From TrEMBL:
<keyword id="KW-0274">FAD</keyword>
<comment type="function">
    <text>Probable flavoprotein which may function in endoplasmic reticulum associated degradation (ERAD). May bind non-native proteins in the endoplasmic reticulum and target them to the ubiquitination machinery for subsequent degradation.</text>
</comment>
<dbReference type="GO" id="GO:0005788">
    <property type="term" value="C:endoplasmic reticulum lumen"/>
</dbReference>
<comment type="similarity">
    <text>Belongs to the FOXRED2 family.</text>
</comment>
<dbReference type="GO" id="GO:0036503">
    <property type="term" value="P:ERAD pathway"/>
</dbReference>
<keyword id="KW-0285">Flavoprotein</keyword>
<dbReference type="GO" id="GO:0050660">
    <property type="term" value="F:flavin adenine dinucleotide binding"/>
</dbReference>
<keyword id="KW-0325">Glycoprotein</keyword>
<keyword id="KW-0560">Oxidoreductase</keyword>
<protein>
    <recommendedName>
        <fullName>FAD-dependent oxidoreductase domain-containing protein 2</fullName>
    </recommendedName>
</protein>
<comment type="subunit">
    <text>Interacts with SEL1L. May interact with OS9 and DNAJC10. Interacts with TXNDC16.</text>
</comment>
<dbReference type="GO" id="GO:0004497">
    <property type="term" value="F:monooxygenase activity"/>
</dbReference>
<dbReference type="InterPro" id="IPR036188">
    <property type="entry name" value="FAD/NAD-bd_sf"/>
</dbReference>
<dbReference type="Pfam" id="PF13738">
    <property type="entry name" value="Pyr_redox_3"/>
</dbReference>
<dbReference type="InterPro" id="IPR050982">
    <property type="entry name" value="Auxin_biosynth/cation_transpt"/>
</dbReference>
<feature type="region of interest" description="Disordered">
    <location>
        <begin position="634"/>
        <end position="662"/>
    </location>
</feature>
<keyword id="KW-0732">Signal</keyword>
Length: 675
């Protein structure tokens, strides 16, 4: 029967008429709209399919109690828009300043209805091509050697209309509720339908299944009206401030932890939900037992005939009956609409709710199928923010850049600078870049060195998981070595069992920067682009393979890495050691002296002074340089001899020898001139 249905489906597809687009996007949530924005800016042929009548339909229902846990920080003390996105977790990326979320709400934790209105404006003001009331119910493949990826994607909606596209972007999120089936699970209410009116729980005893933010959000809503609330899950509670993962329990929802630890009846329990069973007595009360107590017993014989754990253990923790049991177990990806030919498979272990994808966000089973948004979180689950707006707005942009290079020959955006700007470029990015900051360890800035280290090419926010594929994925060449800049927490600082408030938790000295615990920049130096084998064999918990050299910029309480001695000087010396050059900037007078006393000039002199570039000197500038010790005062030098005084020669050599630049005696120059 299955073969017959499959064959008939193929016949129906073969005779259907298809509306073609280069790119099809499933879902007009935040990720789908973000992808549509980049496609539209690039002038690509695309369409977004949304099953609801408006974008962001998930937020029309969730969270049930309407308060988002994504922060909306109005003030940072900075006017830099890129820096401010570090503390704006709701805005999507666009050129339109009207579409910053802080213009829609002043609440630190905004209402979900505001997010719905924001997404509607984002789609309408930017005139994104979204087709509403279109639910894609089936996706399959059509082999074609002329297609971009060797096949087309064929989509069918609820009205049996058909669409064809060369590239499929799945941004449908995770919206199917996780349900655990056990004896008596029919008595359980789901988070998606349970009442949100606290008065409906007055004087009741409640058991909540789950331990995520939805579970604690539900408990927070009824905490003041219930007899007591118990919460059970197979894992211990994970606090986001300990794990540094924003998807774990946030402080805004953790009131139950207070009432539990301060002995006010509420409590938390650990246990496998699949081992549970629920029995309803004659009064409608719900009793918790274990599945094995029901084995070989006739449940229909009545409540009194069933043994309960408290019959053997009279202090069994959940011996008190409950009025209600609520399931708050989160959501999973909907695999049902994808034909077997696409090989859309769930992940394994704790990421089984997400589809299997590569670090490039492309499906492991089908070329040309990319997963965006929350459903792509398997790449960085419990590691970074890729499952949330303030993370996937950047990974969506990265995917767009990969597609631009693959399908349209547009290389990854980059900027070329002279090597003298290397330190400044890094300092600027680590102090303001929001993508590096939010997607720590997952997105990285790449610096590709030019031959002889005279210049470099800067690429922003490239996925670290596909570093070995950089040349193929970006259209850029890494022939002379590279630096990789990422943000990291300390190796042993994050975890559910970690005390992140211990005494002396912060590092302040530059020489101990490698022991920094809080988020801080780390620079990896590779003489050659790492291979795929090196990526596979990298040390556990390392985002990248072992480099030829590594530098940690010491953590900073203000996340302001601009201190001359603590941050900039150690970084510059690290870069100089890697490149065997001098990255300091010199005044014209020093460059003039070096030209007569050294075989090789520092890069700043080569690219500045020799090239007739630099600041025009003045008496005030010279006086400042003298007072700061940056220049020697030669006004009283005895010029009657043929060689410079020892003090002058010593100061010249001191400027250069520490940086490996060979010194040529001035007398040699004089002799050469005489000859």
């Amino acid at each position: 029967l299955g073969l017959a249905l499959y064959a008939s489906g193929l016949c129906a597809v073969s005779g259907a008429t298809f509306l073609y687009h280069d790119y099809c996007v499933i879902g007009a949530g935040p990720a789908g709209l973000q992808a549509a924005y980049f496609l539209q800016q690039a002038g690509r042929d695309y369409i977004v399919f949304e099953r609801s009548h408006a974008p962001g339909s998930f937020f029309a229902l969730y969270p049930r109690h309407r308060k988002l846990i994504s922060i909306n920080k109005q003030y940072t003390g900075k006017s830099n828009s890129e820096f401010n996105l570090r503390h704006d977790w709701n805005s999507l990326l666009s050129h339109d300043r009207r579409l910053l979320f802080r213009r829609y709400s002043r609440d630190f934790f905004p209402n979900a209805d505001t997010m719905v209105r924001y997404l509607e404006d984002f789609a309408s003001l930017l005139k994104l091509r979204v087709q509403y009331n279109t639910a894609i119910i089936h996706v399959t493949l059509e082999k074609n050697e002329q297609a971009w990826n060797g096949h087309y994607f064929l989509l069918t909606d609820q009205d049996r209309k058909n669409y064809k596209c060369s590239c499929l972007l799945v941004a449908a999120g995770t919206w199917v509720p996780n349900v655990v089936n056990f004896p008596g699970s029919e008595y359980v209410e789901g988070y998606e339908t349970v009442s949100i009116n606290p008065e409906d729980f007055t004087g009741q005893t409640v058991l909540i299944l789950g331990r995520g933010n939805s579970a604690f959000e539900t408990a927070e809503n009824i905490l003041g009206v219930t007899n007591f609330i118990h919460m059970v899950s197979r894992s211990r509670v994970r606090l986001s401030w300990a794990t540094h993962y924003v998807g774990d329990l946030r402080a805004i929802n953790n009131g139950l932890l207070d009432t539990y630890q301060l002995k006010s009846l509420d409590g938390l329990l650990e246990g496998d939900l699949e081992d549970l069973a629920i029995i309803k007595d004659r009064k409608g009360k719900l009793h918790i037992t274990l599945r094995f107590y029901l084995e070989n017993r006739n449940i229909s014989a009545g409540f009194d005939s069933i043994a309960l754990p408290q019959d053997e253990l009279d202090n069994f923790a959940t011996r008190a009956p409950y009025d209600r049991v609520i399931r708050c177990l989160g959501w999973k990806f909907d695999f049902s609409i994808y034909n077997r030919s696409l090989r859309m498979m769930p992940g394994k272990g704790n990421i089984k709710k997400y589809p299997q994808i590569k670090p490039s966000y492309e499906s492991r089973g089908t070329r040309g199928l990319f997963v965006l948004g929350t459903a792509s979180h398997s790449v960085d689950f419990r590691k970074s923010a890729g499952g949330f707006i303030h993370g996937f707005r950047y990974t969506t942009r990265a995917v767009h850049r990969l597609l631009e290079n693959r399908h349209h020959g547009v290389p990854w955006p980059s900027t070329v600078y002279p090597i003298t700007q290397l330190t400044n470029s890094i300092i600027k990015r680590v102090n303001e870049a929001s993508g590096l900051y939010q997607m720590f360890t997952v997105l990285a800035d790449i610096i590709l060195l030019r031959e002889n280290a005279t210049a470099f090419e800067y690429l922003e926010e490239y996925p670290t998981g596909i570093l070995a594929e950089l040349e193929m994925q970006t259209g850029r060449k890494a022939r002379s070595g590279l630096f990789v800049i990422i943000m990291e927490y300390g190796r042993n600082f994050s975890g559910a069992d970690k005390d992140v408030f211990y005494y002396n938790r912060a590092v302040g000295e530059a020489q101990h920067a490698w022991q920094s615990n809080f988020l801080h920049p780390v620079i990896y130096y590779y003489k050659h682009l790492p291979t795929e084998r090196e990526m596979r064999l990298r040390p556990p918990e390392w985002p990248l393979p072992r480099p030829n050299a590594i530098h940690h910029i010491v953590e900073d309480f203000l996340t302001d890495w601009t201190a001359p001695n603590a941050h900039i000087l150690p970084l510059r010396r690290f870069l100089e050691n890697c490149l065997s050059t001098d990255l300091r900037h010199f005044f014209a007078e020093s460059c003039f002296l070096f030209a007569f006393t050294h075989q090789k000039l520092p890069p700043s002199c080569q690219q500045g002074y020799v090239g007739m570039q630099g600041l025009v000197g003045s008496q005030e500038l010279r006086q400042h340089a003298l007072q700061a010790g940056l220049l020697q005062d030669h006004t009283h030098t005895d010029s009657s001899g043929d060689s410079p005084p020892d003090s002058l020669r010593g100061s010249q050599q001191q400027l250069m020898t520490d940086h490996g630049i060979p010194v040529r005696p001035l007398q040699h120059l004089v002799n050469a001139k005489d000859e």
